[in-house]
Each structure stands twice: as C-alpha cells, then as structure tokens.
Amino acid sequence: MAPITPEEAYERQEQGWELPMHLPPNTSVYQYSGFTDLQGAVSQAYEHFSDNNQSPIVGFTGISQEELEKHIESIPGRIDYYPTLHTLILTILSYPHELAAGVTSSLWQ
Asked: Which of 46, 61, 73, 106 is 20 to 30 A off residue 91, Cα-Cα?
C-alpha cells in the first residue's frame, strides 16, 4: 500500500477533502483497501517512527464507520475517526513514549 501521491492529495483538496489541521506535514495517508493492508501500513509506519524518528501518525481515507467498527479492537494505537470524511487517523503508540507519558501524568495527580 503506497501513500497517496501529492497529485491525489491536491485533487482531493480540490474536492473539499482536508486532513484535520493538527496533523504534522509528513503524515502518511493511504486509501483504505482492506484491514490486511492497514496492518501492513501501520507496521511500516511503526518501523519508520522507531528507526527514523518519523511521524507516529498514519491516516486512512475511504474507511466506513461499519468497517472501522468491525476491526476497532484489532487496530493498534490511538484512534481518531472523522465519519463525514470517512477518515481514520491513527497515532502509533510506542512503549517508551507511553511509559514516559504515564510517569509524567502520575506526577500531576
């Protein structure tokens, strides 16, 4: 599964589709083509995140709410879903980052 090309992104912007503004500019976005491909893209993004310090965020367009609900328990990471855009934004979690976040939040309690 390859990320959406800049041309495809431009075409989608012309049609009124936008990623939520809070995403980093190097976020990979894919057209959803099945759960197996989603898992592969997430695995690849995790490798880039952990090895190359790339963005921990991956986007998927064209995923229906029904499809998301079918697989929600198996999707790793933190999920943000935009039903009107049929867009899933997935933040990849890594153990060191989550451990640090847990320690930090416990300090404030």
From this structure: 106
